[in-house]
Design a protein that fits this description.
Structural class: alpha/beta
CATH class: Alpha Beta
Number of domains: 1
CATH topology: Rossmann fold
CATH architecture: 3-Layer(aba) Sandwich
Number of helices: 11
Radius of gyration: 18 Å
Oligomer: single chain
Strand order of the largest sheet: 7-6-5-8-9-11-10-12
Helix content: 25-40%
Largest sheet: 8 strands, mixed
Strand content: 25-35%
Length: 291
């Protein structure tokens, strides 16, 4: 494949002006990392798409495994593409799934498709544009029929403000089937003010939410990724022990009475009050791309 023949292919993205680089994983044969603006965005194992590398992606993978009947096809919408790690995972673990992927930068998808191609059998349609704008252009028949919506939108190391508000989450949730699952990846640091605001906002949008992350992150002791799980129906909390058991460890889930305590004092985010996610220290996520 092209990625194996080219040393760290790179491109300057037209929309953002950021540089995207594909780097081979020195330790896992057949694996590559997509780095955008110095921040690792995706990790893909071309030989085994079920091999998920990043901690938060593994947690989302466990949620995917619990949706509907294991191994059966689902309908999924991905807001944010990266290197299509999770669409590849769904195709590998649930062949025949119908998937829609939304990405702002078409040249990024073209770059990934060239160097890290995915299965031609996969029923993956890629739509281009701002996630919030594209939501309004989805076929009307998709509304209320989607099993899984994954929101993983970053510009560099931060989530843009306009995809953190109640107005945005209501649009995304409108795609869900009555018991469909909304999964959101965010990043926050000590104090977790952003994460608590996002959890309160998702709960207001869909009614039911749980929070999943590494224990030290949820204790507010370090910066990292937090996965929010939401649904219009009561969440099947029996799957929480399996999500935790699946790792990475140590894992913690916040729900029920503990969630109410976690959300205490957090306000629902609106378009008027929305801000981008906090900027991590450069040492947290950023890497130096190889030459």
């Amino acid at each position: 494949m092209a990625a194996r023949e080219t040393d760290n292919p790179r491109i300057r993205l037209a929309s953002s002006g950021q540089e995207a680089v594909i780097e081979a994983d020195k330790w896992v044969p057949g694996s590559y990392q997509l780095v955008v603006d110095g921040t690792p965005q995706s990790h893909v194992n071309l030989d085994d798409p079920t091999n998920l590398f990043f901690e938060y992606v593994q947690r989302i993978g466990h949620v995917i495994d619990e949706v509907r009947t294991p191994g059966q096809p689902i309908t999924a919408v991905h807001l944010g593409a990266g290197a299509l790690t999770l669409p590849r995972y769904i195709e590998a673990t649930r062949p025949g799934s119908r998937q829609q992927v939304v990405e702002l930068e078409q040249d990024l998808v073209d770059f990934v498709r060239e160097h890290l191609p995915w299965s031609k059998r996969a029923a993956i349609r890629v739509r281009y544009g701002d996630a919030r704008e594209v939501l309004g252009r989805f076929p009307k028949g998709l509304a209320g029929s989607v099993d899984l919506v994954i929101v993983d939108i970053f510009s560099g190391a931060r989530t843009p403000a306009h995809v953190t508000s109640i107005e945005f989450y209501r649009e995304a949730a409108a795609l869900l089937s009555p018991d469909g699952i909304l999964v959101i990846n965010i990043a926050d640091g000590p104090g977790l003010a952003f994460a608590r605001g996002q959890a309160a906002t998702v709960q207001d949008a869909v009614g039911h939410v749980a929070v999943l992350a590494e224990a030290q992150i949820l204790k507010g002791r370090r910066f990292g990724n937090v996965v929010l799980i939401g649904s219009n129906a009561e969440l099947p909390m029996h799957f929480i022990p399996r999500l935790l058991a699946g790792g990475p460890h140590p894992a913690k889930a916040v729900a029920g009475a503990e969630l109410r305590q976690f959300l205490a004092g957090a306000s629902v985010v609106t378009d008027e009050t929305a801000v981008p996610s906090p900027t991590p220290a450069q040492t947290i996520f950023q890497v130096r791309s190889g030459n």
